[in-house]
What does this fold into?
Amino acid sequence: MTPLLSVRDLRVGFGQNPAANEVVKGVSFDLAAGETLAIVGESGSGKSVTALSVNRLVDFGGGRITNGSIILQRSDSSTLDVAKADEKVLRTIRGRDVGMIFQEPMTSLNPVHTVGAQIEEAFRLNRGLHGAEAERAALEVLERVRIPDAKSRLAYYPHQLSGGMRQRVMIAMALASSPRLLIADEPTTALDVTVQAQIMALLAELRAETGMSMIFITHDIGLVAGIADRIMVMQHGLAVEQNTTDAVLDNPQHDYTKHLLNAVPHFTSGKAVRADNERTATSEPIIKVDDLVVRFPVKKGLFKPKGAIHAVDGVSFDLMPGETLAIVGESGSGKSTTARAILGLVEKHRGAIAAKAGRSRRPIQMVFQDPFASLNPRLNVEALMAEPAIANGQKLDDTLRDRMRFLLDRVGLPADVLNRYPHQFSGGQRQRLCIARVLMLNPDVVVLDEAVSALDVSVQARVLDLLVDLQREFSLAYLFISHDMAVVERIAHRIAVMYAGQIVEIGEARAVLSDPQHSYTKRLISAVPAVERRRQHFAVDATQVPSLVRPAGYEPPPANWREAGQDHRVRIEETK
Amino acid sequence: MNYVVQRLLTFPLILLGVSILVFVSIRLVPGDAITAMLGTEAGLLTPDQRAALAAYFGIDQPIWSQYLRWLSGLFQGDLGISSIYGKPVLSIILERFPLTLQLALMSMLISLSVGIPLGVFAATRNERPSDLIVRMLAMLGQSTPSFVIGVLIIYVLSVFFGFVPAMGTFTPLTVDPLASVGQLIFPAITLGFAFAASVTRISRSAMLDVLSDDYIRTARSKGASQRSVVWRHALPNALIPVVTLSGVEFGYLLGGAVIVEQIFALPGLGRLVLDAITQRDYALVEGTVLFIAFNFLLVNLLVDLAYVALDPRIRIGGR
It folds into this structure.
């Protein structure tokens, strides 16, 4: 039987001279009908370009196919070489034979058209449906992607829906024409982990219902373990390994595959937690947060009463010297706001933040998520690193330069980078630079707000190792804000789980990860994709985060806690 | 919606501010109104006659009481009597305004219907020769002064076609639509030329931004044609800067186009203001400037409403 899709020696280049700027350097693979292929690789590996070549959307990004063939079997059983087809023909395969969903549900829907209009367009283009027929079809397909109250959602604009809902709309649109092949380009990367689990479960169910083939692109080999039949690992534009999922995961052949499987953080339910630094009863906390409350007022119109977003609602914890406390939670849980309140970057509504006098006048420093945006592109490294010291009243002199060189060396950057500018560094190097910068003032506490989230997985692993080394050397305490359980497992001594502005569970890392008590912690942990749990089946769960907008004067009921073990406390849930 | 309500509330306050500013500033200019009115004959007046005239026009009072009197008249629709024309200011303005409004509308229509398609076309041909030609034309259009274009048009029309556009009195649209449009078409082209160039440039750059957005790729992945991608998916998202620019331009045009009115000898608001200022017709200056400010504010309000219509994110707040 001929495969649905057969790619041979595909080469794709960019720019004026595509042959010289190749991003995909000779990739071949086959995809049978009903099969799911996962293309795994880090940024710049050519995985997205390979997938975008299948429906030739790569042309619109400035790419050119310089060599190879892409033979697609069409629904009428004819075959077509996509690599050589012209735009008119290509338009008939897009949507009809090949559907696609993208990484960013936030920006992938047109903001000026309703969700319904955008889905109906797909039906109009590919099935020739109009008016009431198209509307009925759009409603049906929205129900198929399990959007609650689908009928009223048709009139919604994209900005009125959450990220997970938007991605469902994207999937609905791609399904409109019952394509035989669905390309999913990192469809869950921008989503929270519990939402990611919902979307993955949905895709698996839809695949079973329709029998379509899928190409699933991801940087997270753990994520596709449960859904892929075959895995192709890409590095530097080449397919370094491809085989069945089990063969790749259990018996990897290529070094890079082994690296992805071993060096990269994978979640292991608390087995990989750090063993150093036991808490002793005598030590005194370096930061003590007590009943922290942060609220943002919302205006509801001219005459309506005002309310407030309860971003952080009664958070208390201790941070000991030399310890890492990880605050985990999903977007909107209040974890970043907590960090910002501790630094005084947002005003607290109530509560106490006591910091013990430290080694310097500024004992708390912060590293941010995006290493590209948090370094001023017009300043060189010397000026960037001098900034905190100068702001603190020091002078840019040889002592300061010596400290810069010392710290740059410690974070693994050569000392001669002082005259270079941020754009001359890679993402990982920039984050090292940010880390060196916060150490300039010899802080006691470093707040790391999603500090490794923007980095590629293997870079992420090395930066985590660096953070652990620096923590020991400078006896730093870390407040590590993250949504990524696998990363948290590698670095945290203690974990606080936040949900809807409150800590629901806090305690020693191993206890929280291996024996979660609160229903939300359990949900969060079971949603983390893991190679070793790949045969587990997940049901579609449509639980949504509650609204944090409360009427003026609202106070949450007092928290009741129970001890789940030594240094492991759980908030008692209200029973309905 | 809050935003629009806020704009509506500030509207009269700004007008009040403008009225004070105009009232005071024209009186700060050296020289007195009676000399300006009568010219050399003012020297023949006895001091008593002069005082009587000043009392008649009310300019012997302190400035604040003059202002209050004027303001109270304003609320009754009385903008005062023009000393040049000897008629109520409001009736003079309303006489001149139809021409200015029609000229503004026609030149907007011309420049938008030329500029937007050209800009969109150039954006889809990014960096290709046709794009470069459009960009060069736009640069030329923006940098050519309107009196050059106007004089050129008149020259070409009269020398090569022996056609002289009707000058002097204006035929309103209600009397003879064809003649009216015909009379204003060349002035409108003159005015619209430079603005069409601005519209071309801004719609080109806005379209270029939008065409690289993710939802454009989504539309293409659905199999949408280039035409549908450009006109249905991209253009509505690129219109906001065009609307902003058009609002400002339209507001200016409603204040009259002095140079073009002068070249084509048209009795519009622009020349009225000019005459009023040079002849120190206090009431007329105050009335026209206030009228122009009112129009400008009104247009800005309409622009805000247009944003609301164009972008559902402004129309319906987030969740």
Remarks:
- The mean pLDDT of chain A is 87.
- Chain A has 18 helices and 22 strands.
- The two ends of chain A are 56 Å apart (CA to CA).
- The interface with chain B takes residues 55, 57, 60-61, 87, 91-96, 98-100, 102, 104, 107-114, 121-122, 125-126, 157, 159-162, 170, 173-174, 176-177, 299, 301-302 of chain A (CB under 8 Å).
